[in-house]
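Hi everyone,

Forwarding the result from last night's run.
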Amino acid sequence: MIKIINLSSPILICVAAVIFNLIASFAARNLNLPLFLDTGGTIFVAMLSGYVPGIAVGFATNLLNSLADESEMYYCSISIFVAIYITFLARRGFFQSFLKTLLIIPPLALTTTFLTEVIENFLFCTGVVQAVNEIQMNFTATFLKELVDKAFLVLVMFFAIKFVPSQITTLFRELGQKQAPLSAEMKKEVYRRKCPISSLRTKVLLMLMLSSLFIAASIAAISYRIFEQAAFNVQIKIAEGVASIAASEIAPEKVDDYIKLGRAAEGYNEIEKKLYAIKNSNIDIKFLTVYKFSEDGCRVVFDLDTENVKASAPGELIALDKNYPYSDDLIAGKAIDYIISDSDYGRILTIYKPIYDDGGQCACYVAIDFSLDLISEYGRAFISKVLALFSGCFVFIFIIGLRFVENHIILPVNTMAYCTRNFAYDNKEFCENNVERIRDLRIHTGDEIENLYTALLKTTQDVLIYFEKLRRAKRQVAEMDKIAHRDSLTGLKNKVAYDEATARLDKKISEGKAEFCIAMVDVNYLKRVNDTYGHERGNEYLINAGKLICLVFGAEHVYRIGGDEFVVIIEGEKISLCKYFVNQFKAEMARKNSNTLLKPWEKVSAAVGTAFYNAGVDKTSDEVFKRADKEMYENKLAMKAARTD
């Protein structure tokens, strides 16, 4: 049965850690403590050796704190760094020693201080925040605060972790794994980072990183475009509204008087004051003028002074630029859409608001130039916020994605590769242990990886069965080969084995490497024993003769090639002993034959003949055999044992 990991304990611990962070940070802010106290729960969970749980606690803490203070989310990456740093050290046993625990605090405080300074100065330089607290601007003061904060939290959690059962730590460490826990040996091999550059882990890492960056860049670009368009539309509406208000203050029937008399015209100064009030109501209004367009140019009706440009006098004629694309429409009194242009004053939005008299004729235009620089500033601040927020979110998503891929793909594939790489088929017991090792992985990802594992397990089991059958077949073949090369009566090598041996000798002769002798042994009186005592006793007689031959010459050299014929082939250093063996054999026969206690079939009588291979004379082993056979027959005649029937 596959052991299902109980997720309730890790979830409850992570929720409690988030709540602890929120309460502690709230208390630190409201009691004006010189501490942050917002990473205690994160440190505790990270000490349990869980990358993803620690990062999740840190991310959730900043996310929930940002509901009350938006800036909290900008520091999310710091909480995530703390989780990664503590988990990395916890997995290497740093928090088992109080001294090592003390040593990791200064680097942690120094790094978090540096990250805090980078984030705050980045936000300040990009205009996200208007001012930075003096204490935060002081690196030394910030470091001391971080040092006290991290020392307090790390030491508190160091002692708190002692009360946590080891099973919980193991549960956090193996959280998310989709297979059985690995043995120490297998874990060492599987997690050893000796991977090629093009390994699956590297490819997945790059894919996650590039895809995350691509998504982030796409979202930032799209969001900025939407923001810019929305801000631009709002600015247009504001500019049109301001132009309409300004136009409502001007009486079209008095425009000619304003041009002719200027400030001496009735009501001119009052209207000019109102126009100044309208201009000063919005800092984005760079210029506010009223013009009357005609073929000979445009006449100034109203023109307001600015900080850098003095206004034109009422009635002043300004020549029109012939290349200005809107000249004809302005002269004709038509409505003009908004105009965006780049000038010495930055990017400008120009609105021409026509003022019509009772007859429907355009008396003049209210022209307002709106600065769009504020939109660019807002855009930079917006992008800066996105980058600050995304830095933490990116790490959070990246780590979760990486751990998911590690547990669902990398680790199962590497463990399967390790088991198959160390598979051995030459030893049945070892082979069965390897199959059992693969079975004990118990991979249950619920996807194609699990299908691959199931197929691998079945294949190895089938291969094991196949190789067992193959080994059994080899044993059967060996037994059959043994039977084919053994004499069924005496158990000695038979004529088939003798033919193979002579073929091997003939090959050595052709290569000039032969060195052997042959002894021919022919048993006497076999027919007499068969006729007198029966074939069973005759068989015993042959068996006893074979035993005696083997006792003297060695069973590995003896062949039974016929009913009562035996051949001995001796090679190498024992050739010099051949004559000795023959004499020994004859002596043993004489001893047995003189023993009156032995039955006739227990005694042995045989003629022996020997021949030595003569290099340069003998072309085949058969020539040596024939000489031995001839000498044997001569010996048989001398023993008066030659058959005459």
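Confidence is low (pLDDT under 50) at residues 1-5, 131-137.

Cheers,
N.
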